[in-house]
């Protein structure tokens, strides 16, 4: 039987006939799925992932932002140009740390341009005060470019080599404290973190807290206080009042006057005997030295010395006090046990300052009018040397670690460094105008020189005899005191009523800060240790007062 054509499909009774798909329908479906994919991939998925990231690692989710005083200053993922001398520097950048320029392509290891670029970077570092010799080994990560030119991380060695420069450049004025009128003498108690300032014109002592950098007490004393000394063991402060011929004894604990002890005429200098707690007072108008007991307090002895005693220094090893007599051009040596003169040594003209080196058995005398320093040995029994220095040497400071004595020459505006071994001048450093006070910081190893005319403080790197900084301060600087532990220098301005505070970071402090910011990989074989320069600099800035 022959088969016929297949019957056509028919629509079941009651059913709709199928619709034809139009072009518009396809477009609508495509747009719907595009919108759905956009909402899912562009909003829902990123929102969920970001939400989880903010819960697990909120800092990274926000872009690893860095803040200072509540203000966003950058990201720890992006380098910035930190080429100021008091901060740590990052690796060089071909884009000048501009991330909008994209990643620059640095020269490859076989290209001659790489060597030229590295040498250019090293020359730049040397020109900016880095002590990098021609044969020194410089960390590659310090002078080589990163692939992105904005990598903020360097290896620890690249940070450690920068420590001397950062430390030397960290000295700068960070504040001014209002005190009494005519501050011309100061002393630091590092244990209690307090600075005592004698205000000659207002007859008072200002107590400055090193923590708040503010005056926490003002104590009335005698007339024209010109010298001040702290006995940290007994927590007692002594103030010589030239106008009222007495010494005010203050309690550090209560910040009150314990006693006013009458002494000789015109007391101008003080020296504390740490062993007995007594203080020696040079009375320039009566040509004697008063010995005041700190525990009584009262005068326990009066010792006649030369004419016009103007400076004192105590040798706790030999148990003697040296007295510079500016009117008779000699030095009296007073026994701390018998309170008698054991020797009188002729020195130069107008001896104005003293410094002792107990370990060497030496005393150094700066002679203002003869332009030299007399070296005394044998507890003042003999003259070891007379060393010519600059014009009008008026202040001394001893660096016992490196065996040098620094002399401030007011008339020639320089500082002489004398070797304690050879008794010869080993360096002469030009400083500011009319340097009349200087102090050595045994913690940081620096010498600070206050220059009265140029209104600045010169910083000398002890041991290297290198001038590393000049810090502008107020006019008429008349006194300088340092707290090496606290990392600050205090400069009084005798012509006004303020004290400038200068930051003085130690090498040990900066080293500890670097070590604290070294990040080690989670596993020994995954990556290497690094230091994020931006995070390190932000940690450093508060200590610089910036």
Descriptive account of the structure:
The structure is a single chain. The protein has 546 residues and is of the alpha+beta class. Among the domains are: 66-167 and 510-544, no CATH class; 171-193 and 392-504, Methylamine Dehydrogenase, Chain H, CATH 2.130.10. Helix content is 17%, strand content 41%. The chain contains 8 helices and 37 strands. The strands form 10 sheets. The protein has a 4-stranded antiparallel beta sheet with strand order 4-35-34-33, with no helix packed on it. It has a 4-stranded antiparallel beta sheet with strand order 5-6-7-8, with no helix packed on it. A 4-stranded antiparallel beta sheet has the order 9-10-11-12, with no helix packed on it. β26 and β27 form a beta hairpin. α6 (163-169) crosses α7. The longest helix is centred in the N-terminal third of the chain and has 34 residues, at 23-56. The chain is elongated. The mean pLDDT is 85.
Query: What average pLDDT do the residues reach?
Result: 85
Cα shape: elongated
Tell me what portion of residues adopts beta-strand conformation. Answer: 35-45%
Secondary-structure-based class equals alpha+beta
- Total DSSP helices: 8
Low-confidence stretches: none
């Amino acid at each position: 039987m022959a088969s016929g054509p297949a019957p056509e499909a028919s629509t079941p009774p009651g059913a709709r006939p199928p619709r034809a798909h139009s072009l518009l329908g396809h477009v609508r479906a495509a747009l719907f799925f595009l919108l759905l994919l956009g909402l899912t991939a562009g909003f829902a998925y990123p929102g969920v992932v970001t939400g989880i990231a903010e819960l697990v690692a909120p800092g990274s989710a926000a872009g690893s932002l860095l803040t200072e005083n509540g203000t966003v200053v950058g990201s720890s993922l992006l380098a910035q140009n930190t080429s100021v001398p008091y901060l740590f520097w990052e690796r060089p950048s071909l884009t000048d740390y501009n991330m909008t320029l994209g990643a620059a392509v640095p020269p490859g290891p076989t290209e001659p341009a790489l060597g030229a670029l590295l040498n250019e970077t090293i020359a730049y570092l040397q020109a900016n005060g880095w002590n990098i010799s021609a044969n020194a080994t410089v960390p590659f990560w310090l002078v080589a470019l990163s692939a992105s030119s904005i990598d903020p991380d360097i290896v620890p060695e690249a940070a450690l080599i920068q420590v001397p420069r950062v430390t030397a450049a960290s000295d700068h004025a960070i504040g001014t404290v209002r005190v009494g009128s005519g501050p011309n003498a100061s002393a630091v108690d590092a244990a209690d973190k307090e600075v005592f300032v004698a205000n000659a014109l207002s007859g008072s002592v200002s107590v400055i807290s090193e923590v708040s950098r503010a005056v926490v007490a003002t104590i009335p004393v005698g007339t024209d206080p010109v010298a001040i000394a702290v006995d940290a063991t007994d927590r007692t402060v002594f103030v010589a009042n030239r106008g009222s011929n007495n010494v005010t004894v203050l309690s550090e604990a209560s910040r009150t006057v314990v006693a006013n002890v009458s002494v000789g005429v015109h007391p101008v200098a003080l020296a504390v005997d740490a062993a007995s707690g007594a203080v020696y007072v040079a009375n320039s108008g009566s040509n004697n030295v008063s010995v005041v007991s700190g525990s009584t307090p009262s005068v326990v002895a009066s010792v006649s010395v030369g004419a016009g005693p103007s400076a004192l220094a105590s040798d706790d090893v030999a148990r003697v006090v040296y007295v510079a007599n500016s009117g008779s051009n000699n030095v009296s040596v007073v026994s701390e046990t018998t309170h008698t003169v054991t020797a009188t040594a002729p020195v130069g003209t107008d001896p104005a300052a003293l410094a002792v080196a107990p370990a060497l058995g030496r005393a150094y005398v700066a002679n203002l009018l003869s332009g030299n320093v007399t070296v005394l040995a044998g507890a003042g029994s003999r003259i070891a040397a007379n060393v010519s220095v600059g014009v009008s040497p008026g202040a001394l400071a001893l660096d016992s670690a490196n065996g040098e004595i620094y002399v401030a020459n007011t008339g020639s505006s320089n500082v002489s460094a004398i070797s304690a071994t050879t008794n010869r001048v080993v360096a002469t450093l030009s400083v500011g105008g009319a340097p009349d006070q200087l102090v050595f910081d045994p913690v940081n190893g620096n010498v600070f020189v206050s220059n009265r005319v140029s209104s600045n403080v010169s910083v000398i790197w002890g041991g290297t005899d290198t001038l590393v900084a000049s810090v502008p301060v107020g006019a008429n600087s008349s006194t300088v005191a340092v707290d090496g532990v606290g990392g600050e220098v205090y400069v009084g301005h005798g012509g006004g009523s303020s004290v400038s505070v200068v930051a003085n970071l130690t090498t040990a402090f900066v080293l500890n800060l670097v070590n604290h910011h070294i990040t080690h990989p989670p596993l020994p074989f995954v990556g290497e240790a690094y230091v994020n320069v931006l995070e390190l600099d932000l940690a450093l800035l508060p200590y610089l007062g910036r």
